[in-house]
Every structure is written in C-alpha cells, then in structure tokens.
C-alpha cells in the first residue's frame, strides 16, 4: 500500500510539471538521408550524380555547387515540425574558409541528368542557412532551424525540389575546394526532424445514464476513454436549445440540469471534446420529469403501463451476471437489440422486492446492449427487466432476470453474515453443555453431592449422630 501511494504521489508530481494537453500529441524524431544529390559545375554538361562526393569549389576556370533532395514521405502531412537540423560531413579541404549558403530549388531535376549546363531553378533571394566551413574534417551542422521550410514541404504549401548549396567567394578570389560525402558514401548528408502528430481521434462516449430525476432537475452521467469536456444539450424537442456543463477535462462526467418543468419530456444528447478539439456527440435520448406534488426526495420512477405498445418490440435474451471491481459489487446486464427500427434507446427497470415493484433505473442509447449497475449489495437479490423506447412509446418487458449478489467464496452475503453465523454456532455449542451441567448438578444436590467444575464434594457430615 505504501509503495502504491508513493508511486501515485510521484506520478501526480511529474504530471503536474506539464500543462494540460502536453501528452495529447505523439512526438517523434527521424533522420532522413538524400533521395538524390549531385555536384554541378558551371557551364559544364558533365553529370556527377553517381559520385561519392559533393564539391563546393572555385578556381580560375570554374566553380561548383551541389544539390541535395530529401524524401519527406515518412513524415505525416499533418505533422507539426518542432525542429529540423541539416548536417554535412566534410571529408577533404583545400583552400580558404568559406561560407556555405543554402537556397531552395524551385524546379524538378534528376541526379542522372542534372549538370551545370542544365541545372534547375533556384530562389537566390532567400538564404535558408549559412554556415562557415573551415579546414576541419568532420560533421558540419548548420546553426539555422529549417522547420518552417520543411513544414511548407510536407503540407504542400510549396513543392519539395530540394536544396542548393553554394559558397560565397572570398574577396581575393583565392582558390578553394571543399569536399563532402554524398548519399553514395558512408557519411551522407542528413536532415534530422522532430515533429508531433496532433490527436485527431475524438473521445469515445459510454455508459450514459440518468442517475436522478425530480420535478425540476435531472442528473446525467457518462464516461469517455480520454479526458474531455462535459456538456449536455437538452430541450423539449430535438432542436434542444439549452446547454449545461463544464469545460474542465475529465473522463468521468456528471452534469446537473436544474431549470426543468414538472411532468415534461426532455430530449438530450451529451457532448465531449478532448484537448485537441476533437468532439463526440451521443445519440439523442429522452427522459420525463416527475409530476408536481410527487415526492421530490424519491429518485426512482415506478414502472408504468401507460405507454406500452406492441408496435415496439422488446429487447431479447436478457442476461445478468454479478461481479466485483475494486471491492465494489456490480450487476452487469446484457441483451440483444430490439427488432424495431429507429428506436431511441432502452430503459432499465429494477426491483429489490419482487416482480411487481419495479422502478426506473436509467435510460441508455439505442446503440448499447449492456449496462453495469454498481448500486448493489452483497447478499441481496435483485430483479431486472429492459424495455425498448421509441418516441413516447415503450415495448413490453424483456424476459425477467433475477440475481443474488454472491461473495468471493460463492456464498451470498458471506461477509455480511459471518458474525451471525459464528454467534449461532457458539450458541448451539455452549448452551447445550451448560444445560447438561445444570441438570446433573441439580440431581447431585438432591443426592447430597455438590457438583462443581473440576471438583466433587465428599459425603455429608454426620454431625449430631453418635
């Protein structure tokens, strides 16, 4: 228990360090290598796409630059790019330090045909990265973050034709030659991307139930498979018109409706939205408030026969099983769908006395065929039936199911009655023994013998006799 409590406190502390929604996105990192690259030499028609090097050079006769393209197909199109870093590996150096600039390519090219005489279009108006390249051999990482450029590519805001690398010539026009590994080499160019994918799956709504109905109020509860908001849209028709609830994030929801009219049928649906804006809505269901003058404290509505119609078929094959979850007993109901089309849902009725004292328990959506009743006690017997609801009409009862809530050892009420069983056994054992002792002792006294536990008196004295 102490270990569990300690773990819970630690987990709660860690979670408190993060804002709400920080776990709603799945963060991933990937390193991409070129799908194509090539050196191009000014005014030269020679193709260098299959070489193991990429060259950035300048001499008296010509200069060279190079192209690199990365395939971003492994990054989802809806990804949010958090960082993107570009790196090269310098394998040889000859000459001065230069600044290597990065530009965006604006037209298509192929490494099997591209050359200085047929190079693609390049936007030289925007420098996306600039890195000083010296005499050291090894990795060269650009200090700029390429996130914005990568995000325009994956979202198709601009076409991904790759990058163009060109050096800024030194003022004295001295010769230089910087060689980097191509995609055919061991030390390839790399684009390291960290991104997150927004959650686009709405919360799953389940276990909708009306826990309390009075003349002017109703309480509606449900569950979701992730933290989300709690709202109920309701009104006297399917157009609703009113909303109640909370924007707090939780997976167990409860909303109280407090402005209702007595003896009025209300339509409602529950709405939950997760931290990423994904919204789920339940199917429409209905309930009816209590009549004026009806006991406000009574939260149970007796089952009536007023709106029964044979046009609505009841659910079939109702079954009920009992169980225990975290030391709390429950009765779980399961049935098969009604054969009537276009139904609104199912109403569950329960009795703790007999087959004639049913009261309304809850109403659930038409898509559900099960319900877990957690308001049961060990050792008690419960009766259940389910009806189909369509508009103002209800079907006749399903088959009736009766269940006694059993304890862990298979006996009903074992924990509740163990004390009384023990007392009964004690009485059945001790009182007969005491009764036998009492009878024997009384008989011995008549004979002049005083019978005591553990001792027997001697014969009576003969005082006064000689």
Number of domains: 4
Helix content: 10-25%
Please give the largest β-sheet.
12 strands, antiparallel
Shape: elongated
The chain-level structural class is mainly beta
Q: Which radius of gyration do the C-alpha atoms yield?
A: 42 Å
Question: How many strands?
Answer: 29
* Overall pLDDT level: 82
How many helices? The count is 3
Beta fraction of the residues? Answer: 35-45%
Ends apart, CA distance between termini: 82 Å
Low-pLDDT stretches: 1-24, 411-418, 453-466
Report what the structure shows.
The protein has 466 residues and is mainly beta. The chain folds into four domains: 175 residues, no CATH class; 95 residues, Immunoglobulin-like (Sandwich); 89 residues, Sandwich (Immunoglobulin-like); 30 residues, no CATH class. 12% of the residues lie in helices and 43% in strands. The chain contains three helices and 29 strands. Strands 1, 2, 3, 4, 5, 6, 7, 8, 9, 10, 11 and 12 form a twelve-stranded antiparallel β-sheet that branches. Strands 13, 14, 15, 16, 17 and 18 form a six-stranded antiparallel β-sheet that branches. The radius of gyration is 42 Å and the shape is elongated.
Quick recap:
With 466 residues, the chain is mostly beta strands. The protein has three helices and 29 strands.
What attributes does this structure have?
single chain; 466 residues; mainly beta; Immunoglobulin-like; 4 domains; twelve-stranded antiparallel sheet; six-stranded antiparallel sheet; 3 helices; 12% helix; elongated; disordered C terminus
Write the layout of secondary structure elements.
Layout: H1 2-16, E1 26-32, E2 34-41, E3 53-58, E4 63-70, E5 80-95, E6 98-105, E7 122-123, E8 129-133, E9 138-141, H2 147-154, E10 163-168, E11 176-181, E12 190-197, E13 205-213, E14 218-235, E15 242-257, E16 265-273, E17 279-281, E18 285-288, E19 301-302, E20 316-325, E21 328-336, E22 345-351, E23 359-365, E24 370-373, E25 381-390, E26 393-394, E27 401-404, H3 414-446, E28 451-452, E29 455-456
Antiparallel strand pairs: 1-12, 2-4, 3-4, 3-11, 4-10, 5-9, 5-11, 5-12, 6-7, 6-8, 6-10, 13-14, 14-15, 14-16, 16-17, 16-18, 19-23, 20-21, 21-24, 22-23, 22-25, 25-26, 25-27, 28-29
């Amino acid at each position: 228990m102490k270990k569990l409590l300690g773990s819970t406190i630690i987990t709660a502390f860690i979670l408190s360090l993060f804002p709400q929604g920080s776990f709603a996105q799945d963060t991933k990192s990937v390193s991409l290598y070129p799908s194509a690259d090539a050196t191009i030499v000014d005014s030269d028609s020679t193709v260098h796409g299959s070489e193991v090097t990429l060259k950035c050079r300048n001499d008296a006769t010509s200069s060279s630059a190079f192209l690199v393209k990365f395939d971003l197909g492994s990054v989802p199109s809806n990804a949010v790019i958090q960082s993107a870093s570009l790196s090269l590996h310098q394998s040889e150096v000859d000459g001065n330090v230069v600044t290597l600039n990065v530009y965006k390519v604006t037209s298509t090219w192929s490494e099997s045909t591209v050359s200085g005489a047929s190079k693609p279009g390049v936007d030289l108006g925007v420098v996306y990265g600039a890195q000083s390249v010296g005499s050291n051999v090894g990795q060269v990482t650009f200090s700029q973050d390429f996130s914005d450029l990568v995000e325009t590519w994956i979202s198709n805001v601009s076409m991904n034709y790759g990058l163009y690398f060109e050096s800024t010539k030194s003022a004295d026009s001295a010769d230089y030659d910087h060689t980097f590994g191509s995609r055919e080499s061991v030390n390839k160019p790399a684009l390291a991307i960290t991104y997150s994918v927004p959650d686009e799956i709405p919360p799953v709504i389940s276990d909708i139930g009306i826990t309390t109905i009075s003349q002017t109020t109703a309480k509606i509860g449900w569950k979701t498979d992730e933290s989300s908001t709690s709202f109920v849209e309701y009104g006297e028709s399917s157009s609703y018109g009113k909303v109640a609830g909370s924007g707090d994030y939780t997976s167990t929801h409860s909303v109280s409706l407090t402005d209702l009219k007595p003896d009025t049928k209300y339509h409602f649906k529950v709405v939950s939205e997760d931290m990423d804006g994904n919204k789920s809505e339940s199917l429409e269901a209905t309930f009816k408030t209590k009549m004026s003058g009806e006991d406000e404290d009574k939260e149970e509505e007796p089952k009536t026969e007023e709106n029964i119609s044979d046009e609505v078929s009841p659910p079939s094959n109702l079954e009920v099983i009992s169980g225990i979850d975290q030391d709390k007993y429950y009765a779980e109901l399961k049935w098969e769908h009604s054969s009537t089309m276009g139904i609104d849902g199912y109403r569950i009725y329960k009795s703790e006395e007999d087959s004639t004292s049913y009261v309304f328990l809850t109403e659930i959506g038409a898509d559900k065929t099960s319900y877990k009743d957690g308001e049961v006690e060990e050792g008690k017997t419960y009766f259940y039936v389910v009806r189909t609801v369509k508009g103002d009409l209800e079907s006749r009862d399903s088959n009736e199911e009766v269940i006694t809530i059993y304890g862990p050892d298979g006996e009903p009420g074992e924990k509740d009655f163990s004390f009384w069983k023990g007392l009964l056994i004690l009485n059945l054992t001790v009182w007969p023994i005491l009764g036998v002792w009492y009878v024997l002792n009384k008989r011995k006294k008549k004979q002049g013998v005083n019978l005591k536990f553990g001792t027997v008196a001697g014969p009576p004295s003969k005082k006064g006799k000689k």
